[in-house]
Amino acid sequence: MKKINRHNVLPPSGGRGLKVLLYIPIFAGLMLMNSCNFFTLEAPNDPNNPSLGSVGENASRVQVQNLVTGLESRHRDYVFTVTMLFGSLGREIWYLNASDPRWQTDWLGMNGRQATATMFGYGATYTNPYFAIRQAQTVIDAVSNTNAFTAQEKSAISGFAKTIMAYQFMIAAIGQHENGIRIDVKDVQNPGPFLPLPEAMTQIKRILDEANTELGSAGTGNFPLRLTSGFTANGFNTVAAIRQMNRAIAARLAVYRQDWQGAVDALGGSFYNLTGNLDAGPAHTYGAPPDTFNPLFFVLNANVTTMMVVHPSVLRDTIAGDARVRAKFFRRNAAVSVTSDGTPLAGLYQDRRYPLNTSEVKFFRNEELVLIAAEANAQLGNTAAAVAAINRIRTAAGIGNYTGATTRDALINEILFQRRFSLWAEPWGHRWVDLRRYGRLNAQNVDVTLDRGTIFPQMARPQAEINWDEYVKTR
Predict the structure, then answer these.
(1) Are the CB atoms for 163 and 245 separated by under 8 Å?
(2) How far separated are the first and last CA of the chain, in Å rounded?
(3) How does DSSP classify residue 309?
(4) Nearest-angstrom CA–CA distance, 451 and 110
(5) How far apart are CA 27 and CA 33, in angstroms?
């Protein structure tokens, strides 16, 4: 058996820097199929793939820079699968693919299919976040064990890495939901147990708060290392702005934990701006090879049978004159059509948000923060503040102020409706998560009439994780 060198890191690619190639439980099945010692390591012999040892002690500024750039690259690897799969589950979109019907049959749960440990194509919603988490851990270890940075610079870099780490843990958590996730993965050969969702969310909060404290002790000037234009061109090139991003993520987490006052408090330290640009926020960047193109870009009106299309129920429920519909949805000359398991699916509208295959993808926007303000204040009984935030969203969409009832339930209904269109198909799966948070992930709110599908409340625990735990019991 070829021994695996888990100490290798990948060389820079397209300016994206070093990505750590480390064992995680996704490879557990391989160990069970081969009698040789999986953990016997070969000495690194590739000069283009430096070992972790070379950055684990006394790393240079250039080496840590490469690790941080690699972290940005890992940070975006979830975008395609999370957007397509979670968006399909919440029926925000269909990802139609005539060449492989499993994109429809499995992901939509057609004809009674269930979310199983071996379901087609969902693994990246779990493994890619953990690759990013491991990359963040390598950044943290490298910067803590070098004299190349000042104490403030170390705090800034560690705080940034922990912020990204927490964001990625949240992706795994929303996909796995009641299955729970592993938080302790620092020792990849001895990962910690699966924590129930509430405990996992508490641990993610701890990581975010640690990052916030570190960023708070790192000054307010420029971040000590180079970040991509997704941060710098959007005003997130300073430690103070990155700390605001941290608090924005904390506000999202607080809402998921039903910590409504915590959400309001986090908003106060974030880049939330009720009257500001709703599109403000940090972004994932893309480019031509050797970088990678925007995975959510599709040529408008292309004559293809592979396309992300707007779910018909979204179009059915729009309000006349909503500017978000014009900005986000493009009406094709002919529908994209596929037939899976005898069920025809057709989409006449496609996404128009990304004009180029190198367009950036925002991973957090002020518009979501305004909606978080609306929801948290509605739950706290701060009716005026909730309505003010709702009206900011509605007037920006050109549909006028809210005139409905101001009971908590009525306001939450309105907020969920506005989140459906403001956050449509953003790389998170907001609609699926929102309906689940409020116990509405059912046929009344998720239209499966056209695809004859199933409503999945969560993904299954990956088979490799099951295999790993079985292996641990026997070793």
Answers:
(1) yes
(2) 19
(3) E
(4) 7
(5) 11
Two tokens, residue 245:
């991003």
Q: From CA 367, how far away is CA 277, in angstroms rounded?
A: 8
Integer Cα distance of 389 and 367 in angstroms = 10
Best CA proximity match to 448, nearest among 83, 97, 114, 88: 88
- Give residues with Cβ within 8 angstroms of 315, minimum separation 6: 325, 329, 349
Q: Report whether 415 contacts 438 (CB < 8 A).
A: no
CA 197/CA 333 separation, integer angstroms: 45
User: At 293, which helix (H) or strand (E)?
Assistant: none
Quick: pLDDT tens for 241-280.
999 999 999 999 999 999 999 999 999 999 999 999 999 9
Q: What are phi and psi of 318, to 5 degrees?
A: -70, 155
Report which residue type is found at 117.
A
pTM: 0.91
Residue 38: its pLDDT value, please? 39
Are 71 and 135 in contact by the 8 Å Cβ rule? The answer is: yes
3-class secondary-structure state, position 205:
helix
68-110 per-position pLDDT tens digit: 999 999 999 999 999 999 999 999 999 999 999 999 999 999 9
* Omega of the bond leading into 290 within 30 degrees of 0 (cis): yes
SS3 114: coil
85 contacts 94 by C-beta, under 8 angstroms:
no
Site of tokens 């750039």: 69
Q: Is 343 helix (H, G, I), strand (E, B) or coil?
A: strand
Q: For the chain, what's the residue count?
A: 475
**Token pair for residue 397?**
């969409």
Rg (CA), the chain: 22
Distances (CA, A) of 29 to 7, 35, 246: 20, 12, 36
Domain chopping of the chain, boundaries: 306-353
The first and second tokens of residue 262, run together, are 């915590």
pLDDT digits (tens, 9 = 90+) for 22-33: 434 433 333 333
Residue with tokens 């000042």: 150
> What whole-number distance in Å separates Cα of residue 94 and Cα of residue 310?
7
